[in-house]
Every structure is written in structure tokens, then in C-alpha cells.
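S.,

As promised, the NAI run. Input:
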Amino acid sequence: MKITVVGAGAVGATCADNIARKELAEELILLDIKEGFAEGKSIDMMQTSALLGFDTKIKGVTNDYASTADSEVVVITSGLPRKPGMTREELIGTNANIVKGVTENILKYSPNTIIIVVSNPMDTMNYLTLKTSGLPKNRILGMGGALDSSRFKYYLSLELGCSPADLNAVVIGGHGDTTMIPLINHATWNSIPVTQLLTKEQQDKVVKATMVGGATLTGLIGTSAWYAPGAGTATMVESIVRDQKKLISSGVYLDGEYGQKDISLVVPVIIGKNGAEKILDFKLSDEEQAAFSKSAEAVRSMNAVLTD
Ligand code: NAI
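Predicted complex:
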């Protein structure tokens, strides 16, 4: 198994670190445009292998796409992250050029790969990758829901006083502060709906905190987060590599599902060796469906910028 991570910055390196620790690949290529950067990060990570006991061989390269040849999974994290006060949407122009170029280069050497797009604004970057690559829609996935759902579980766990890992909770919609939809009515703790365990005030607090979860961290750290984004991406990679068929909220191309066409949005997806193997049809309330349509509208107007 060979995996490539493009972008050796905060998220890419953390993702690579998780992939290596979980031994998801024999060979892991870390590629960055910045001279020597990926090489340095890779050597640093390889120098943890004797301590952590993993056998993945990590190789860092500067823009050398030939080294990525025959990768079965490629993660794209290259692009600018947001700074305090910025929205993900403000990154669109710069990141669209980066993501398009990276996708074209990757496909020259790995024409049948599965791509996971992390760069923001993710919904639009994922759509762009779909259109640029021409790959079947099951082979392109966007990471955003894995992260937002994990944040949702974290905030729920604070109110419930339980472990985040004991919760089932998903976020769908767009991967933006105003477009994501934490499905509070579908969230459960040990099969008990959390709506039975939390007051309406607590539920609203959790939903709000989840939606601005990324911005909260950007305000505290000074740039966007990386531990949970890196781990969320590696979880998706793991489900593909080990064919785990995990249900992970992910950005996928919709062709009528949830009432939307020709757009990438986050929905519950079964992820296995073929990528996005099945989109699950959650029964949404009228209010949730209306919120989903509103998110689609916002993402669609961002996508329009790509052709402007
Ligand atoms: P970073 O600035 O630490 O790393 C980005 C890396 O991309 C840099 O090392 C840069 O040299 C590299 N790069 C830029 N252009 C490139 C090119 N053409 N080819 C190869 N490498 C290139 O940023 P960070 O924090 O790692 O974030 C990366 C992206 O992921 C950002 O767009 C950020 O907004 C996004 N993000 C998405 C999340 C999600 O849930 N989808 C969560 C967190 C971040």
C-alpha cells in the first residue's frame, strides 16, 4: 500500500504522522512545494519510528510527483489556512489554483487513485477536484464531516459528562461556520437520544459551539487547527485501506441525494476500499432539510466563483 499526502504543513504532517503510527501504508510520500520542508518533516517522523515501533517508510519530496506514482490513496492538504477573523470561503481563489494544479499532477502518476480533499473551502475544493480529475464520484471524498462530527461529540460530551467515543453524532451540510448542520435530533448516547438527556438550552449551546468550533480554535491558536483535522483525515484513510465500511460524514458529489445535484456536500457515507461506497439516506425533518437546502445554496454560489 502506498499513500501520498500533499502539503507537509500542520494538517498534512499530522495526518501523515497518524497514518504512520497506524501502519496504514508500507510507503508514505509527503510532498510540499517548499524546498526541503517535506524532507525535513519526514526525517523527523522517521526518527520517531524506533520510539513508536512502526514500519511505514516515510519519504519527503519537494514537488517531485514521480515519487508519488501508483499511490492508492492521496490526501490533498496543500493551500493556505485561515487566520483569525477569516472565513474558510475567503481562501477560495488561492487554494483553487493550488488544488487544481496538485490534482492534475497527481493524476499523471496515479490515474486511478482515491483522493481525499482537505484544503478549504473544502466543499468547493472537493467539487473542483471532482471536475478536474474526471475520476468516478466514489473516488473523491472531502474531509470536513469527520472533523465537525468529532467536535460535535466533544461538545456533547462536555454537557453529558460522558466519553466522546461513546456518542453517535453526525454533522452534515457544508463545511462552513454557517453551513454545517449538527444533527442534534439524531445524536445518541448508548442508544438514548441526547435530546432526552439535555435541555433545549444545552442542545442549542452544543450546536452553536460545534458550528464555530474551527473559528474558536483559530482565535486561540492564531491559525487553524491540525490535530483533529489530521486525525479525521487519517480515520478516512484507514476506513479505505482496511475496508472498514465505517460511517463517516464526508464531502461527496450528490446526484439527487438529499434533493441536490451537481454539488459536493457533507452527508453520511460508508467508506471502504472503493472510497465512498454508499450514501446513507438519513430521514431529515422539514427543518433539517430546509437547512440542508440553504447550505447547498451557499456552497453553490461559492462554486460559481470557480467559473467566474
Ligand atoms: P499550512 O500552511 O500549515 O500547510 C499548507 C502547506 O501546503 C504548506 O506547507 C505549503 O508549503 C503547502 N503548499 C502550498 N502550495 C502547494 C502546492 N502547490 N503544492 C504542494 N504544497 C503546497 O496549512 P494547514 O494548517 O496544514 O492547512 C492546510 C489546508 O487545510 C488549508 O487550506 C486549511 O484551511 C485546510 N483545513 C481544512 C480542514 C477541513 O476540515 N477540511 C481543517 C483544517 C485545515
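The chain has ten helices and 14 strands. Residues 77 and 119 are 5 Å apart (CA to CA).

- D.
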